[in-house]
Each structure stands twice: as structure tokens, then as C-alpha cells.
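Annual report, structural modelling task.

Input specification for the flavin-adenine dinucleotide complex:
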Amino acid sequence: MPKRTLYSEDHDLFRESVKKMYAKELVPFVEEWETKGLVSREFWKACGDNGMLLPDIPQAYGGGGLDFKFNAILLEETALAGTTGPAFGVHNDIVAHYIHNYGSETVKSHWLPKMASGEAIGAICMSEPSTGSDLKAVRTKATPVDGGFILNGSKTFITNGINADVAVIAARVGDDSGAKAISLFVVACNEKGFIKGNKLNKVGNRSSDTAELFFEDLFVPTENMLGEQGSGFIYMMKELPQERMSIAISCQAAAQHAYDLAVDYVKERKAFGKAVIDFQNTRFVLADMKAKLQVGWAHLDACIQALVDKELTTTEAASAKLWHSELRCEVVDNCLQMFGGYGYIEEYEIARLWRDARVMRIYGGTSEIMKDLISRSI
Ligand SMILES: Cc1cc2nc3c(=O)[nH]c(=O)nc-3n(C[C@H](O)[C@H](O)[C@H](O)COP(=O)(O)OP(=O)(O)OC[C@H]3O[C@@H](n4cnc5c(N)ncnc54)[C@H](O)[C@@H]3O)c2cc1C
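The model returned the following structure:
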């Protein structure tokens, strides 16, 4: 990995503590979580006990009171440890931020300390069976009643859907079909009418639980609406750049991890009487990946700094999500090829990295939607 200047000594110390914690509490459990389709709650609790959750949320709400670079370190280290299981991007970078930025004081002081301690796990519920890319088309309905709203509808592909204790739900108030009817609600997942459906059987990212959710006459008090009624779509557009950066960060680190594994492998593996790395093709493919990774880290660091400085534009975040997710898929596929047949065998980590990569071009907005967003700025 090239030398990076983004991080200070405090960030480096945090990274070291995360690495140590992961060596004990994460790496030995990845296979078990992959089989169960779920990261253990004990791990989330251990992260809370080690002060790793909600790094950039103010200390008054149980967070670390730090900057987003600490969130980025968690994402990088998780990917460098070879898993995408603990969905810190969703919990730390998305759900906590919706609650912190738009929640009432009661909602913030109830949920954020629980999320910081690992007692409560967060989920973001935008996608529905009939719509994902086109968020304006969500059908989940919030009907105004005395003291709040009654939610009816369903969501799908929800990360942390099974483990979740708190969910931010996008729903439509009234019969208007436009974006202005969408509002966001914070809901405890054990409320009557909040039904967790099937854990979806995915191609990759298997240790991360992804579920269908159903809302049947789910009562949500008015104070659990985030911000202003009808502003949900605007809030989503404001928060999506940070979600997209979380994905870009994970992708760059996961690509680096796959590259490092491949370099180790081709130095050991022999064919035609020499190490696989000694073939010019292997060295050229590795060189191409190394150059792209170097450029990738420089670009990523510039975007993280811009995000911390609140200067990252929607277009830049979309470009970062597009480029780093495509890079991850390209690098991981090239690296699997270097493992030959072993690359296709589950006991080799590269096989899992290859499966895990594919969804990165889909969730958080597909590559096509990223291109559409970028093209609007031209
Ligand atoms: C593992 C996983 C985890 C996820 N986690 C979450 C989560 O936690 N919360 C959540 O809310 N959602 C989540 N999602 C949903 C994800 O964000 C959506 O799947 C994604 O946004 C695409 O929506 P869709 O599946 O409905 O595809 P569609 O919108 O139906 O798109 C189908 C195809 O059409 C293309 N397309 C659509 N519109 C256009 C256009 N305007 N121009 C060009 N091409 C277009 C798309 O790019 C795609 O190739 C998750 C998905 C997966 C698979």
C-alpha cells in the first residue's frame, strides 16, 4: 500500500487498536458468521466496549466525538481483514447520521447511546420489492392518526434486517405520488406490526444478514419522524454521498487485500519449473493492478478529506462509488485468476472475496445510476 498522508498519529493509534481487536474478535469468527449468515451480537457489543462504534457522533450521544476518518479506518480494516460482514457503513455512517442530523432530542438521546454501545444495531429501509433505484416510487404508506402515523408496506434487501433493533424507514404520507410525499421514520424493530421476514440467501456477503421486512399497522409516534414531513427524499439525497463513500472505502481496501493475497500466492506457486510470478503476464497484470491501486488510494484519500471538510459533492461521491466498486470487481477477478483452480475453491479466501465483490456495483445505487447522476453535472 502506498504511503498515505490523510491520517494523523491519533488515527494510526486507533487503527492499531482496531487491528488488535479484530485479530481476536473478528478474524477467528468470519467462517462461522458466513455459515450462519449473521455477525454475532457479541461482536457488535465488543466493538461498543472498545469505543469503535459511532466514531464521528458527538460524545454527548455516546459517540467518539471524532472525525469521519475514524469511520473510514473501521471500514478499511474490516475489508483488509477479508470480510464485509459487520455492516459498519450502514450502522455508523448512515443510520446514526440520519438520527443525529434529523432526529428529535428524544429520539437521539434514546437511540444513539445504544447504537454506540453495540446494544442496538441499525438498519436503513429504502428499497422495496417493486423499487430500488427509483426511490421516489416507494409505496410503503404512513397514514396520519392521532399522535402519529400507521405504517403499512414492505421493504427488501435490508442489510442488518435480522439483527436490527432500530430502523430508519422511508414511507409515503398521503396519496401524492411525488418525492415530496416521502418522510423518514425511526422505528424500534420490536414494535408490534414490525415483522422480520426471510433472511435472503445471497451469492456473497453471506455473513451480513439481509432481509425482507413487513409493516402491518405499525404505529409510529409523531416525534419519531425525522425532520420535516415531506423532506425525506431531500434528506436521502443529502446522506447518500456519505453512504457511497463508505462503499468506495470498503472497495478500495478489499481490492488491496485481494491483491496482497495474490502476490503472496504467485510467489509460492510453481508452474513450468518456475514461480508463477516469474511469468511476464503475471507481473504485468500485477503491475497494472498496483498502479490502479496507487491511484485509487490517492483519489480515495482526497475524497475522504473533502467529505470531512464538507466539500465532497454528490457527483464526486457518485464517481468514487462507481470507480472504486468497479476497481474492486476488476482486481478481485484478476486475482482469482492467478490462483488457478484453487481460486474457485471455497477454502481459499480469494473465492469469498470474489463473491463478496459483485454486490458493490449494485447496492448504494447501481453503477448505471451513478453514471446517470454524474452525467447530470456535465
Ligand atoms: C446485499 C444487498 C444489500 C442491500 N442493502 C440495502 C439496505 O440496507 N437498504 C436498502 O434500502 N436497500 C438495500 N439494498 C438494495 C439496493 O440498494 C438496490 O438493490 C439497488 O439500489 C438497485 O435497486 P433494484 O434492485 O430495485 O434494481 P432496479 O432499480 O430494478 O434496477 C434494475 C436494473 O436497471 C438499471 N436501471 C434502473 N434505473 C435505471 C436508469 N435510470 N438508467 C439506467 N439503468 C437503470 C439498474 O442499474 C439495474 O441494472 C441492498 C441490496 C443488496 C443486494
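The first strand starts at residue 122 and ends at 125.
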